[in-house]
Write a structure and sequence with these properties.
Residues 340-358, 464-473 have a biased composition (Low complexity). Helix 9 runs parallel beside helix 12 (373-381). The protein contains 19 helices and 14 strands. It has helices at 3-23, 33-50, 54-83, 94-105, 192-210, 244-256, 259-264, 283-294, 310-318, 331-337, 356-362, 373-381, 405-408, 424-435, 455-463, 490-503, 511-519, 525-530, 532-542, and strands spanning 85-90, 115-118, 130-131, 147-152, 156-162, 165-175, 181-189, 213-220, 223-231, 271-277, 298-300, 325-328, 390-395, 415-419. A hairpin with a 2-residue loop joins strand 8 (213-220) and strand 9 (223-231). The chain has four domains: 52-83; 84-132 and 145-211, no CATH class; 226-419, Rossmann fold (3-Layer(aba) Sandwich), CATH 3.40.50; 424-542, no CATH class.
Amino acid sequence: MDSSSIVQLVLSALTNVTNTSFVNQTSSTSSSPLSSLTNDALLTSLLPLLFSYDWLKILLLGSAFEALRRGFFSVWRGVVKGFWIEATFEQDDEPYDWLMLWVSNHPSWHKARVVDVSSRSYLLGDHIGVPLGPIDTSDPDSESNLSVHYLPSRSETYTLWYNGCYVQIIRKMQDNGDSRYRDSNETLCVRRAVLHSLLVEASQAYVTTRKRVVRIFVADRDHWRSFSSIHKRPLHSVILEPGMAELILEDARDFLGSKAWYRERGIPFRRGYFLYGAPGSGKTSLIHTLAGELNLDVYIVSLSRAGMDDSTLIQFLSELPSRCIALMEDIDTAFQYGLNRNTSSPTSTTGPSPNSHSRSNDVDPPKTSGITLSGLLNALDGVAAHEGRLLFATSNCKSASVLDAALRRPGRMDLHVEFRLASRYQAEELFKRFYLASEELVVVDGEDEEGEKSAEETDVLLRSSESPESESPIHGSTHALPGQAFHFPRPKILALASEFAHAIPERSCSMASLQGYLMKYKTRPEVAVREAGAWAETEAGKA
């Protein structure tokens, strides 16, 4: 019996069953001739399909197509892995910044069709931004000098040619599993030599650009995050006692250039500086200046940061780059409120700080830190301690004894530098810094012969000054009003500077307070000299 006979028998049986079911129904629901014909037609069209191989052909064809598609992409991935080099750059690492800066300056980048636009200073401050209009050269910080940054967009693929080779760059956002995403770049190129050449070029461009700024990093959960970029300051802009800044700078330079010497003698390659003394005396400014002179980034280590404990501190310090400045500001307050030799005692082993009484009147003590003194010591020079960095710790206390003897010993804090209140020399140099023209600012040792003036000549200058200011309810340092430009010959300014220095008692006020005072007379040096004596007496009364 062939298949057609079987189909006919099945149709006949089904038809009989259907007719029987309609007959057994109640009289109110009689079978419809049209319904019976429809059922017969449907069964007639479906049954031959079930006994044919057309559906099997469709299934096999779709499966074969999917297998070919997967095979093609598998082969393509193998070809990519075999002939292309894939490099990943994490956002937390410096090479990521190299690549982002290099891509933003590449000629083909100007042809990109998908970009991210940001007005925030990125990587190295405002130096790589694209201006939106004419630049006001007379005032570089003017609001009219707006600029934007065009950055590679995330989840986009950018292609370019480099040294005759095809390169792909993909910027991705990776899920870290803790409700945070981390940026990364993937770069594909044909040969390892091409990748190496690209990295060398990118790093050189980065170093050239960053020579103008100092980058500041802060601890962010489990990694260092770039916080800001600040302009470098020349060494002579920080007015300290003669030779003081130069001594620290030369010591740091000598250390950074002595790595082989340390290694040959088995001495840990680390250097620590403890800067202590009066507030506003230039400790932080000096560190900023040294970072610029040495081309180092600054990593701020906050011992009172929420969530910081011994293991976290060791992790952060171990992830510092080989050449950098690690800064621990106001380390005395961390000892006063949190650091201790063991976690069971929240009090400091060194006793209260000399200025603890005044601090307690202003702010409530912070919560106990999770860092112990032993943990800090191990982080600084333990077995897992990082080498190659410069450590700077600052304190506003008058004596270095505020630190535990184990912390301030050589090997951890090698050089102790005291910052005292301003001397007459510093007051005179600060006055010159304020009122001499930029091209006339020079560092001089001793008295300038051109600047020597007789007392009578100085008196004439003072008598020609403006009348005293009226009393004002506003206290503090106010800027001079615009439009009050002045021009005095250099000899007159030097004479006024000498007179100003003699009006300020030795070691009676900080450099910060002197600067605040001169800010009120930014364009009126004669008034600043005339009223300096009365101001100094008022400041002495506040102490």
